[in-house]
Structure formats: C-alpha cells, structure tokens
From TrEMBL:
<keyword id="KW-0808">Transferase</keyword>
<dbReference type="InterPro" id="IPR027417">
    <property type="entry name" value="P-loop_NTPase"/>
</dbReference>
<dbReference type="InterPro" id="IPR020590">
    <property type="entry name" value="Guanylate_kinase_CS"/>
</dbReference>
<dbReference type="InterPro" id="IPR008145">
    <property type="entry name" value="GK/Ca_channel_bsu"/>
</dbReference>
<feature type="coiled-coil region">
    <location>
        <begin position="169"/>
        <end position="197"/>
    </location>
</feature>
<keyword id="KW-0067">ATP-binding</keyword>
<comment type="similarity">
    <text>Belongs to the guanylate kinase family.</text>
</comment>
<dbReference type="Pfam" id="PF00625">
    <property type="entry name" value="Guanylate_kin"/>
</dbReference>
<dbReference type="GO" id="GO:0005829">
    <property type="term" value="C:cytosol"/>
</dbReference>
<dbReference type="GO" id="GO:0004385">
    <property type="term" value="F:GMP kinase activity"/>
</dbReference>
<keyword id="KW-0547">Nucleotide-binding</keyword>
<keyword id="KW-0175">Coiled coil</keyword>
<dbReference type="GO" id="GO:0005524">
    <property type="term" value="F:ATP binding"/>
</dbReference>
<feature type="domain" description="Guanylate kinase-like">
    <location>
        <begin position="46"/>
        <end position="228"/>
    </location>
</feature>
<protein>
    <recommendedName>
        <fullName>guanylate kinase</fullName>
        <ecNumber>2.7.4.8</ecNumber>
    </recommendedName>
</protein>
<dbReference type="InterPro" id="IPR008144">
    <property type="entry name" value="Guanylate_kin-like_dom"/>
</dbReference>
<dbReference type="InterPro" id="IPR017665">
    <property type="entry name" value="Guanylate_kinase"/>
</dbReference>
Length: 240
C-alpha cells in the first residue's frame, strides 16, 4: 500500500477510507492520507504521549533529552500560550507565544484539542500541531497541564498519560525558587496548583506511568523503558 490514512483510531484501528473524519467537540477534524516509505500494509501508529507534571518537576528536561535522542521517530507538539517568554525561550520551539485575543479567537473557532488557564495565562494544544506530527508518521509527544489531561480524556485522541513529579512539595519549591523566574505571588500560585496536581497524579488510573524525578538518570531510564516499545515499532514500520 503506497499510503495509509492516519487519524485517531476506532477501536484501535486506523481506517483506510478517504476522507476519514474524527469527531471532536464542536467540530470535525479531517486528516488526509499520508505517504509511507514501506509498500507493505502497516499497523497503526503508536498512541500519542501526553506528559503532565508541576512546573519544576523536570518534565521539560526529560522530554528534551528524549526528543534529542530519538528525533527521527518522535516529534513534540508545541503548545500555545499567552504568557511572555522566559529568558532563553524561543517562539516556535518552546511555545507558540500568542496574544490573548488571538488565542481566545482560535479557541472559539474550535482549533484546539484542549486548553486551560493558569495564573492569568492560557495554554493549549492545537489540533493542527498534532495532525502534522501524525501525518509525518512519528510518535507525538504533548506537554499538558492537569486540566488539559482531563480534557484529552474526553476526546478520541486516546493518548498514553505520563505524570512527572518531585519526591516532595518541598523539593519542588526549592527548584522553583532556584530558577529565579517567579514573583512570590506567582510562586505561591504554582505551589498551590502543584499540590492539586500531585493528588491527581497519585490517583490510581489517571496515568499510565508516574515518574518520581529525584534522580534525573533514573527517571530518564524509566521514561525510555516505557517508550522504547513504541520507538522500536516505528523503526520496523519505517524501514521494513
């Protein structure tokens, strides 16, 4: 088969009909057929990976390392946000930094899979960002807030969920203070949200994998162990 349709699976199967429609709240998302290197009939792509964790948990460090090591097979769905860039953050690489007006307009137009507001700023995952990664035949990684996780569970995206946390709230507070990027008011808001996230992250059934990022090397080893079966599956599909 020269091409195969990639979209959200129905009962775990990607349907080869054209066009195929995946229903989301308020809108239908049409995903076009995708060219593949192999001429053989291929299985469905791995489920997307949604990663959640409090600010300061180290999830960004873990994801950047994994993405760098497996860049040929994995791509990151860059979120949109209305907050201002931090030092060394690059628009289009770390986030798509947009105005609140543009973000609210896009949300109203149904362009986002999920969105949430925290500390006066909106964060969200656009449908188009995920669609492009699926079209390229790669494993899609999403970095989402707790509310975003809850919203994704209501869609047909069917991702695997990973929660990254520190061993204690005290360690988290120390990491946030050492970054020197937060006002005291902002830091306290993040800590209050983090306490909610830790409860949600520790609730059985909410996540497929919970990583305690006490030792970076060990946390990364566990992350790789969880995701390598998907990477190996992609290698077989792309080169055999």
């Amino acid at each position: 088969m020269d091409s195969l349709l990639h979209a959200i699976p129905v009962n775990g199967v990607y349907l080869p009909d054209f066009p195929w429609r995946c229903r989301y709240p308020r809108e239908e998302w049409i995903i076009e057929n995708v060219k593949w290197k192999s001429e053989k009939k291929l299985e469905s792509l791995p489920r997307p990976i949604a990663v959640c964790g409090p600010s300061g948990s180290g999830k960004s460090t873990l994801l950047k390392r994994f993405l760098a090591e497996y860049k040929d097979y994995v791509d990151f769905s860059i979120s949109h946000t209305t907050r201002k860039p931090r030092p060394n953050e690059i628009d289009g690489k770390d986030y798509h930094f947009v105005s609140r007006e543009d973000m609210e307009k896009a949300i109203a137009n149904g362009e986002f899979l999920e969105h949430a507001e925290f500390s006066g700023n909106i964060y969200g995952t656009s449908k188009n960002a995920v669609k492009q990664i699926l079209k390229n035949g790669k494993l899609c990684i999403l970095d989402v807030e707790m509310v975003g996780v809850k919203n994704l569970k209501k869609t047909d995206l069917n991702p695997k969920f990973i929660f990254v946390k520190t061993p204690s709230i005290e360690v988290l507070e120390e990491r946030l203070r050492n970054r020197n990027t937060e006002s005291e008011e902002s830091l306290q808001k993040r800590l209050a949200r983090a306490k909610e996230e830790l409860v949600y992250g520790g609730t059985p059934g909410n996540f497929d994998l919970v990583l305690v990022n006490d030792d970076l090397e060990e946390a990364y080893r566990q992350l790789k162990e969880f995701l390598l079966p998907d990477i190996e599956g992609l290698k077989r599909r792309m080169y055999h």
